Every structure is written in C-alpha cells, then in structure tokens.
Structure to design on (453 residues):
C-alpha cells in the first residue's frame, strides 16, 4: 500500500498537503498524483489523519496561569531608609553580642597581664573591643599549649626569660607562656603587655584582682534598645511599603 | 491595548501586561502541553512553567509570531517535565503494596490515567488519538502537535523545536504515517469516511 512510493515521496506528499512545496516540485507531484493512484491514496490517508488531529477538541485551561509577583520574584519597592535601619539592627546586635563575649571572657584572662590592659580599654568603642578580644584570644590559645613544653625546662636550666618573670611565677604558672607568646607573636599591644608584666610583680605581687566587667551594663542596655528600636522601625517600614504596594490600583 | 504594546510593557517588567498575554494564550499553551504530555495535571504544570520562563526571558523576544515564541517555551517546558518524570516515575513499575508485598489483585494493571468516570466522559476517539500521539517518539509528537493541532507553519515549528526545516518535513510525514497506522487499531471509532477508504484499500 504505502510501500511502493519511497519515504521521500511520502514526505513530499505531506508537505504538499500543507502547501509547503516549491512551485516546480508541486507541479511535478501533481502530475504524478494524476498518473499514480497509489500516490493519490497516500495523500488521502495523510489528509484524513491530519483531519482527525484537527478535530481534536480544544480544551479550556483548567485554571488561569497568570503570574503573581511572588512567582516571578518581584519585591515591593522599600523605602531608602529601610536598609539603614536593618543594618543598624544587625550592627547593634553584633556589638551587644561582643560585649557579652568580652565580659564573659575577660575574668578568665585576667589575674594575668592582660587584665589591666583590658580594664584600660574597656570604655572604648566596639571596634576597639573587637580588636582587644581577638588579641586576647590569640594570646590565650598558645597559653594552653605552652606550659607542657616550658615547665620541664624551667627548673633545670633557668632561661633569661624565666628569671625575668620569676616573682610572678608564684602567682600563676599561666602567665609565663602568655607573656612569651604575646611577646613573640608581634601583636601591637605586646610591648605594652610586657611592660605591665614587668611592673605587676613588683607593684602588687600578691593581690588578687577582681576587675569590673570591661563593658558596663548601661552600654549593653543602650545597644539592646538600639537593636530593638531599629528592628521595629525597619519592620514597620517594610509592612507599610508592602501594604501600599498591594493596595496600589492596577 | 494591542499585543505589541503589551509585550513592550512586559519587557519593561510590567507583570500586569504580561498577565493579559497569559490570559490570551493560556488555552493554546495548555492544549499543546496536554497533547504532548497526555494528562491534565502535567500539562498544567508545564503551562505554568512555560509562562514563568517566558516572563523571565521576554527580553529575548525579538519580534515575529509571539504565539510561536510562546509555543517554543511550552514545548521546552514539556520536554523538561517529561525528563523529570522519567527520572522519578510516579507509577511504581513493580506490583507491590506499600509494605513491599506483591499485590494480589491485578488492580495495578489498570490504566492509571483514566478512572471509569473519566473514561465515560472522555470522547473515545479523542482518547484513541491521544493514545496514538503518546505512542510517538517525543520529537515526532511535538512536531505533529504544533503543526496539525496548533496550525503553525513549518518555519515556526522549526524555530519552536530548534531543528532544520527539512527535519520538520520528515518528522511530520513520519508522524502522520505512524498515527494513521496506530489509528487503524481503533477501527470502530473512526469516522465513516475514514473507514470507507480503508475498506476500499483492503479490497
């Protein structure tokens, strides 16, 4: 039935059906259609098949496919001040966290040379606190590791360093490595620490200090209030903007 | 507002203008997806996805038939959806219950796409045609759907499915032949003229 004409012929018949043949090709095919009943038969089959497909009912869309701003990731235009308040909230919260961290860490690192240093710097701004925090942390970390190495060396062969801080060794063994590492690490505050370290044992050798927290409560309260207020303002700005945007007549 | 103005507005990010276009073309896109996918739910998903990607890519529209451009996005969405379904088949291949035991009743053998009620509602000939369409390879199916169901010309289809014009001609002829062959299996459903011709050929 459809075997005799080649697939190339069927392709041409199909294109002819859709009016897609060049005039020359069309004329040639039309003459073939007249002489060859099989060509005519195939054309009829193709036409009927196409007719059946065209008969398929067009369905209505089951719902509307309109897009919402959320779907396309559109956001309402927020006031210019909004990011400022949001940034203030984040900053105040972070600073508040650092003040807590500083107050928590400071007593553990005091009774050492860092205490007066921390005490002196306590009133400074957030940046200074952060710096101090990292400086003390740097100093504290090797402090835990060093004694194991240093201790056996101290009684046997007293190094120049050991003799230098000998009086303070009675207070706490932790001081030595702390001082040594801060001295070697080249942190900016290191010379200051060193001078303190040399003075402390002479001035107040036996006194146990209980320093006040580096950051006072009013500062913390102020930071908390700033964080809460700026968060509230940012929230109000945002909700108002969204409400206005939604109510906007389209 | 005419279509071009709406498109221009949409290209500037105006969602309302785009949604007006959505309402104009959603039936066309849904029907195309329905014939390619075979079931309404997947077709609706593909249509939604198509409009979404059309909005995102609307700046890349550079004139020509907007309908053809949209049909290209829906064809792509259908391909993606079918690929996704292939990766995660929703109908289990093994006749097992949730507990992992073999099912005693051959209920799983039933065609999951049609419930008895749906079957009664569905026009049987439409069902037969859809069945034969789904038996076609995807690249043939999309070409025949775009040409014969949506009435696009060869050039538009070539753009829509991104293949050369010659390939469109060849795929369309092959698809029509295969459909014709497949539809012979639904002899009793075919219109009288269709059957008559077949009888003549048989004798």
């Amino acid at each position: 039935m459809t075997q005799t004409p080649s697939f190339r012929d069927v392709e041409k018949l199909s294109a002819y059906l859709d009016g897609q043949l060049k005039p020359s090709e069309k004329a040639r095919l039309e003459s073939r259609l007249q002489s060859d009943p099989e060509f005519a038969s195939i054309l009829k089959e193709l036409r009927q098949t196409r007719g059946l497909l065209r008969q398929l009912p067009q369905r209505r869309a089951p719902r509307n496919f309109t897009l919402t701003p959320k779907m396309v990731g559109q956001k309402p235009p927020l006031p210019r001040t909004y990011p400022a308040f949001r940034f203030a909230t984040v900053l105040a919260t972070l600073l508040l966290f650092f003040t807590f961290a500083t107050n928590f860490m400071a007593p553990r690192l005091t009774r050492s040379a860092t205490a007066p240093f921390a005490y002196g710097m306590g009133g400074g701004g957030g940046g200074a606190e952060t710096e101090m925090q990292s400086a003390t942390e740097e100093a504290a970390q090797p402090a835990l590791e060093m004694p194991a190495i240093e201790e056996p060396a101290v009684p046997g062969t007293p190094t120049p360093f050991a003799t230098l801080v000998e009086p303070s060794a009675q207070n706490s063994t932790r001081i030595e490595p702390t001082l040594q590492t801060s001295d070697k690490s080249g942190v900016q505050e290191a010379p200051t620490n060193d001078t303190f370290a040399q003075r402390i044992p002479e001035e107040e050798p036996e006194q146990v200090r209980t320093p006040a927290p580096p950051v006072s409560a009013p500062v913390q309260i102020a930071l908390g209030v700033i964080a809460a207020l700026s968060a509230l303002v940012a929230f109000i700005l945002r909700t108002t903007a969204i409400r206005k945007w939604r109510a906007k007549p389209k | 507002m005419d279509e071009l103005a709406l498109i221009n507005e949409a290209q500037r990010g105006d969602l309302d203008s785009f949604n007006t276009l959505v309402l104009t073309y959603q039936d066309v896109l849904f029907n195309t997806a329905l014939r390619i996918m075979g079931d309404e739910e997947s077709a609706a998903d593909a249509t939604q996805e198509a409009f979404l990607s059309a909005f995102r890519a609307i700046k890349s529209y550079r004139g020509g038939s907007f309908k053809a451009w949209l049909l290209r996005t829906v064809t792509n969405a259908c391909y993606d959806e079918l690929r996704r379904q292939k990766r995660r088949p929703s109908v289990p291949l093994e006749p097992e219950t949730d507990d992992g035991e073999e099912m005693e009743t051959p209920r799983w053998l039933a065609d999951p796409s049609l419930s008895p009620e749906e079957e009664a509602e569905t026009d049987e000939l439409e069902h037969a045609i859809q069945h034969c369409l789904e038996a076609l390879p995807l690249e043939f199916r999309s070409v025949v759907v775009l040409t014969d169901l949506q009435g696009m010309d060869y050039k538009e289809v070539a753009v829509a499915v991104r293949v050369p014009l010659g390939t469109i001609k060849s795929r369309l002829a092959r698809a029509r032949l295969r459909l014709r062959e497949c539809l012979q299996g639904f002899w009793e459903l075919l219109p009288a003229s269709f059957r008559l011709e077949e009888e003549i050929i048989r004798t």
In short: Chain A touches chain B through 38 residues (CB under 8 Å). Residues 204 and 246 of chain A are 70 Å apart (CA to CA). Chain A has eleven helices and no strands. The two ends of chain A are 62 Å apart (CA to CA).
